[in-house]
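Quick one:
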Amino acid sequence: MASLRSMLVLPALLWFSLDAHAAILTLESSQLEIHFNFAGSQETLVFPQSPASLPVFVSSGGGSFAQPGGLFAGTGSILLNGPFTKVFTGLTYSVSNAGGSFAAGGGPGGGFGGSSSVTGQLRGLAGYLFSVRIPLAPVGVGGVAQTGAATLRVTVTGASGWTAGTVTITAITVAAPGGFANTVTFAGKDDRDAGHRGELWLVTPIRVFSNATTTDFGFAVQKLLFVPEPGIALLFGMGAVGLVVMSRRRS
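Output:
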Protein backbone atom coordinates (compact mmCIF):
# COMPACT_ATOMS: atom_id res chain seq x y z
CA MET A 1 0.00 0.00 0.00
CA ALA A 2 2.85 2.37 0.84
CA SER A 3 4.46 1.67 -2.51
CA LEU A 4 1.17 2.37 -4.35
CA ARG A 5 0.80 5.62 -2.42
CA SER A 6 4.32 6.66 -3.45
CA MET A 7 3.60 5.84 -7.08
CA LEU A 8 0.59 8.16 -7.00
CA VAL A 9 2.01 10.94 -4.84
CA LEU A 10 5.28 11.35 -6.74
CA PRO A 11 3.63 12.21 -10.08
CA ALA A 12 1.37 14.66 -8.27
CA LEU A 13 4.36 16.44 -6.74
CA LEU A 14 6.19 16.48 -10.07
CA TRP A 15 3.06 17.86 -11.71
CA PHE A 16 2.90 20.85 -9.39
CA SER A 17 6.67 21.40 -9.62
CA LEU A 18 6.68 21.45 -13.42
CA ASP A 19 3.55 23.55 -13.70
CA ALA A 20 4.98 26.21 -11.38
CA HIS A 21 8.21 26.70 -13.31
CA ALA A 22 8.12 25.12 -16.77
CA ALA A 23 6.19 22.95 -19.16
CA ILE A 24 7.73 20.10 -21.10
CA LEU A 25 6.44 20.33 -24.65
CA THR A 26 7.40 18.52 -27.83
CA LEU A 27 8.95 20.40 -30.72
CA GLU A 28 7.88 18.63 -33.91
CA SER A 29 7.29 19.15 -37.64
CA SER A 30 9.42 22.30 -37.45
CA GLN A 31 11.84 23.64 -40.04
CA LEU A 32 14.40 26.30 -40.86
CA GLU A 33 13.84 28.14 -44.14
CA ILE A 34 16.26 30.47 -45.89
CA HIS A 35 14.51 32.69 -48.45
CA PHE A 36 16.83 34.74 -50.60
CA ASN A 37 17.10 36.82 -53.74
CA PHE A 38 20.57 36.06 -55.09
CA ALA A 39 21.85 37.18 -58.50
CA GLY A 40 18.24 38.07 -59.33
CA SER A 41 17.01 34.53 -58.63
CA GLN A 42 14.48 34.05 -55.82
CA GLU A 43 15.06 30.77 -53.99
CA THR A 44 14.04 28.99 -50.78
CA LEU A 45 16.09 26.39 -48.93
CA VAL A 46 14.19 24.21 -46.43
CA PHE A 47 15.80 22.24 -43.59
CA PRO A 48 13.34 19.98 -41.70
CA GLN A 49 13.75 19.31 -37.99
CA SER A 50 15.83 16.27 -37.07
CA PRO A 51 14.99 14.38 -34.91
CA ALA A 52 11.35 14.81 -35.93
CA SER A 53 10.23 15.00 -32.30
CA LEU A 54 12.17 16.68 -29.46
CA PRO A 55 11.10 17.39 -25.82
CA VAL A 56 11.75 21.02 -24.85
CA PHE A 57 11.49 22.78 -21.47
CA VAL A 58 9.42 25.95 -21.91
CA SER A 59 9.10 28.56 -19.15
CA SER A 60 5.55 28.89 -17.88
CA GLY A 61 6.08 32.65 -17.51
CA GLY A 62 7.26 34.20 -20.76
CA GLY A 63 7.47 31.03 -22.81
CA SER A 64 11.27 31.09 -23.05
CA PHE A 65 13.18 28.00 -24.18
CA ALA A 66 16.62 26.80 -25.26
CA GLN A 67 17.18 25.23 -28.64
CA PRO A 68 19.93 22.68 -29.35
CA GLY A 69 22.38 23.06 -32.20
CA GLY A 70 22.11 20.81 -35.23
CA LEU A 71 18.32 20.64 -35.04
CA PHE A 72 18.13 21.92 -38.63
CA ALA A 73 20.84 20.89 -41.09
CA GLY A 74 21.33 19.94 -44.71
CA THR A 75 23.49 20.09 -47.84
CA GLY A 76 22.63 20.34 -51.51
CA SER A 77 22.82 22.42 -54.67
CA ILE A 78 20.48 24.43 -56.89
CA LEU A 79 20.63 26.10 -60.29
CA LEU A 80 19.96 29.83 -60.56
CA ASN A 81 17.78 31.39 -63.26
CA GLY A 82 18.02 35.11 -62.53
CA PRO A 83 19.34 37.94 -64.73
CA PHE A 84 22.86 37.65 -63.28
CA THR A 85 23.36 33.97 -64.13
CA LYS A 86 26.10 35.04 -66.51
CA VAL A 87 28.09 35.52 -63.32
CA PHE A 88 26.51 32.98 -60.93
CA THR A 89 24.99 29.86 -62.46
CA GLY A 90 24.24 27.93 -59.28
CA LEU A 91 24.65 27.54 -55.54
CA THR A 92 25.79 24.73 -53.32
CA TYR A 93 25.04 24.90 -49.61
CA SER A 94 25.92 23.33 -46.28
CA VAL A 95 23.85 24.69 -43.42
CA SER A 96 23.16 23.97 -39.74
CA ASN A 97 21.83 25.94 -36.78
CA ALA A 98 23.83 26.63 -33.65
CA GLY A 99 22.26 26.35 -30.20
CA GLY A 100 20.46 29.38 -28.82
CA SER A 101 18.03 30.75 -26.24
CA PHE A 102 14.78 32.61 -26.91
CA ALA A 103 12.66 34.65 -24.51
CA ALA A 104 10.20 37.51 -24.18
CA GLY A 105 12.12 40.74 -24.80
CA GLY A 106 15.08 38.82 -26.22
CA GLY A 107 14.58 39.73 -29.87
CA PRO A 108 15.70 42.83 -31.79
CA GLY A 109 13.42 45.70 -30.80
CA GLY A 110 12.43 44.00 -27.54
CA GLY A 111 9.92 41.46 -28.83
CA PHE A 112 10.02 37.71 -28.29
CA GLY A 113 13.20 36.28 -29.77
CA GLY A 114 16.85 35.62 -29.13
CA SER A 115 20.25 35.01 -30.62
CA SER A 116 21.32 31.89 -32.52
CA SER A 117 23.72 31.70 -35.44
CA VAL A 118 23.39 29.75 -38.66
CA THR A 119 26.61 27.90 -39.36
CA GLY A 120 27.89 26.80 -42.76
CA GLN A 121 27.91 28.56 -46.09
CA LEU A 122 26.46 29.04 -49.52
CA ARG A 123 28.84 28.83 -52.44
CA GLY A 124 28.08 30.76 -55.63
CA LEU A 125 29.21 28.90 -58.73
CA ALA A 126 30.59 31.06 -61.55
CA GLY A 127 30.20 28.54 -64.35
CA TYR A 128 33.16 26.18 -64.49
CA LEU A 129 35.64 28.93 -63.68
CA PHE A 130 35.54 29.32 -59.89
CA SER A 131 33.21 29.54 -56.92
CA VAL A 132 32.67 32.20 -54.26
CA ARG A 133 32.02 31.28 -50.64
CA ILE A 134 29.13 33.16 -49.03
CA PRO A 135 29.52 32.76 -45.23
CA LEU A 136 26.40 32.60 -43.07
CA ALA A 137 28.07 33.37 -39.72
CA PRO A 138 26.36 36.80 -39.27
CA VAL A 139 22.86 35.33 -39.76
CA GLY A 140 20.89 35.42 -36.51
CA VAL A 141 23.64 37.04 -34.42
CA GLY A 142 24.71 40.14 -36.36
CA GLY A 143 28.09 41.24 -37.62
CA VAL A 144 29.86 41.24 -40.96
CA ALA A 145 31.64 38.51 -42.94
CA GLN A 146 33.67 39.16 -46.08
CA THR A 147 35.04 36.84 -48.72
CA GLY A 148 35.92 36.74 -52.39
CA ALA A 149 37.47 34.90 -55.29
CA ALA A 150 39.32 36.26 -58.31
CA THR A 151 37.94 39.79 -58.76
CA LEU A 152 34.66 39.13 -56.97
CA ARG A 153 34.09 40.48 -53.46
CA VAL A 154 31.18 39.46 -51.23
CA THR A 155 30.07 40.95 -47.90
CA VAL A 156 27.36 39.37 -45.72
CA THR A 157 25.62 41.18 -42.86
CA GLY A 158 22.97 39.97 -40.41
CA ALA A 159 20.74 41.36 -37.66
CA SER A 160 21.51 40.82 -33.98
CA GLY A 161 18.95 38.10 -33.41
CA TRP A 162 15.65 36.46 -34.32
CA THR A 163 12.22 37.95 -33.64
CA ALA A 164 8.58 36.94 -33.73
CA GLY A 165 7.88 40.46 -34.99
CA THR A 166 8.42 41.95 -38.45
CA VAL A 167 11.84 42.59 -40.02
CA THR A 168 12.48 45.05 -42.84
CA ILE A 169 15.26 45.43 -45.42
CA THR A 170 15.60 48.80 -47.17
CA ALA A 171 17.79 50.37 -49.89
CA ILE A 172 17.35 47.51 -52.36
CA THR A 173 15.75 47.11 -55.78
CA VAL A 174 13.53 44.11 -56.28
CA ALA A 175 10.83 43.22 -58.78
CA ALA A 176 7.31 43.76 -57.41
CA PRO A 177 3.77 43.87 -58.83
CA GLY A 178 3.54 47.00 -60.96
CA GLY A 179 7.28 47.71 -61.03
CA PHE A 180 10.02 47.66 -58.42
CA ALA A 181 10.22 48.00 -54.65
CA ASN A 182 12.98 49.39 -52.46
CA THR A 183 11.78 47.82 -49.22
CA VAL A 184 10.83 44.26 -48.33
CA THR A 185 9.41 42.89 -45.09
CA PHE A 186 8.96 39.46 -43.56
CA ALA A 187 6.69 38.84 -40.59
CA GLY A 188 7.21 36.37 -37.79
CA LYS A 189 4.41 35.35 -35.46
CA ASP A 190 3.68 33.88 -32.04
CA ASP A 191 0.40 31.96 -32.16
CA ARG A 192 1.05 29.91 -29.03
CA ASP A 193 -1.68 29.61 -26.40
CA ALA A 194 -1.39 30.30 -22.67
CA GLY A 195 0.31 26.92 -22.24
CA HIS A 196 2.79 27.88 -25.01
CA ARG A 197 1.46 25.23 -27.37
CA GLY A 198 1.17 26.20 -31.00
CA GLU A 199 3.16 27.87 -33.77
CA LEU A 200 6.07 30.27 -33.35
CA TRP A 201 7.87 31.85 -36.33
CA LEU A 202 11.21 33.55 -35.64
CA VAL A 203 12.72 35.61 -38.47
CA THR A 204 16.01 37.39 -39.15
CA PRO A 205 17.17 39.40 -42.21
CA ILE A 206 20.23 38.77 -44.42
CA ARG A 207 22.04 41.16 -46.77
CA VAL A 208 24.66 40.19 -49.34
CA PHE A 209 26.73 42.86 -51.09
CA SER A 210 28.71 41.93 -54.21
CA ASN A 211 30.60 43.88 -56.84
CA ALA A 212 29.14 41.56 -59.50
CA THR A 213 25.39 41.89 -58.84
CA THR A 214 22.95 44.25 -57.19
CA THR A 215 22.54 44.10 -53.41
CA ASP A 216 21.10 40.69 -52.62
CA PHE A 217 18.95 39.98 -49.61
CA GLY A 218 17.04 37.30 -47.82
CA PHE A 219 15.33 36.16 -44.65
CA ALA A 220 15.84 33.13 -42.48
CA VAL A 221 12.80 31.87 -40.59
CA GLN A 222 12.45 29.18 -37.97
CA LYS A 223 8.93 27.75 -38.14
CA LEU A 224 8.50 26.03 -34.78
CA LEU A 225 5.56 23.93 -33.62
CA PHE A 226 5.10 23.11 -29.92
CA VAL A 227 2.70 20.30 -28.96
CA PRO A 228 2.02 18.51 -25.65
CA GLU A 229 4.65 15.96 -24.64
CA PRO A 230 2.93 12.52 -24.52
CA GLY A 231 4.97 11.28 -21.56
CA ILE A 232 4.19 14.39 -19.52
CA ALA A 233 0.50 14.12 -20.37
CA LEU A 234 0.59 10.62 -18.85
CA LEU A 235 2.43 11.96 -15.82
CA PHE A 236 -0.19 14.68 -15.34
CA GLY A 237 -2.93 12.07 -15.58
CA MET A 238 -1.24 9.96 -12.90
CA GLY A 239 -0.84 13.09 -10.78
CA ALA A 240 -4.55 13.85 -11.06
CA VAL A 241 -5.42 10.27 -10.09
CA GLY A 242 -3.04 10.48 -7.17
CA LEU A 243 -4.69 13.64 -5.86
CA VAL A 244 -8.16 12.08 -6.13
CA VAL A 245 -7.06 8.93 -4.30
CA MET A 246 -5.37 10.92 -1.54
CA SER A 247 -8.46 13.11 -1.14
CA ARG A 248 -10.79 10.13 -0.86
CA ARG A 249 -8.58 8.39 1.69
CA ARG A 250 -8.51 11.51 3.89
CA SER A 251 -12.32 11.73 3.79
